Amino acid sequence: MFSGKVIEKELPDGGWVSRETDYTTILDDLSERNNILFSIMAAHDAHIVLSEQPTENLNGNNFVELTLGGWENTMSMIRVKTTGGEDGRVNTPHLLNEDKFQDFWLAWNSTCVVVGRGFIIGQQIFMQKDIPEVINYNYMGIFSGYGSGSSWVIYKGTYIHRPARRVSP
Fold first, then answer.
1. 3 state SS for 63-111
2. 48 lies in a domain?
3. Is 35 in contact with 128 (CB distance < 8 Å)?
4. Mean pLDDT of all residues in 57-61
5. CA–CA gap between residue 61 and residue 20 (Å, rounded)
6. Does 164 map to a domain?
7. What CATH number is given to the structural domain containing 64?
8. Taking a C-beta distance cutoff of 8 angstroms, is the pair 7, 156 a contact?
9. Could you list the residue range(s) of the whole structural domain that residue 9 is in?
């Protein structure tokens, strides 16, 4: 069960991403957070950016970019504050699904970013990257492209886990 607000967003295929001007800011209040839960439905290429400044213009901005299901849904990657070259690329075949939402969590601190499947933070980790310099994340942006649109659900609140249990009389 989730407590708090949910953001739903449909993104068309954005074509070829410039990485500096094509993101849509979805959250602008990350200074008090260190994680986010979200679901994506896409054939491939769902992108997330965490940044210090609004994500519509990343020029000169400190940011971390994540690609989920890139390279035709075969790999994912974390790229740090750059417009070229790949960092932290990992094999993730069939990570995304164009017909069904897939659940993920993203956690960070000023020097590390970690991504996992499902809604239990710290479990099913498939990607992580140490950040070489301190970045204070204030904004989160999303983008889809390279021939794939996407549907997103961003859970702004807190996940409350209430395990089922039998109560004895």
1. EEEEEEEHHHHCEEEEEECCCCCCCCCEECCCCCCCCCCEEEEEEEECC
2. yes
3. no
4. 74
5. 9
6. no
7. 2.60.120.200
8. yes
9. 2-159
CB count within 10 Å of CB 76 equals 22
Write the pLDDT tens digit of every residue in 123-160: 999 999 888 777 888 888 888 877 788 888 888 754 44
Burial class (CB in 10 A: 0-12, 13-18, 19+), 35: middle
Question: Model's pTM, two decimal places?
Answer: 0.81
Give CA–CA dist 17/148, Å, rounded: 12
50 close to 154: Cβ distance less than 8 angstroms: no
How far apart, in whole angstroms, are the C-alpha atoms of residue 67 and residue 76?
A: 5
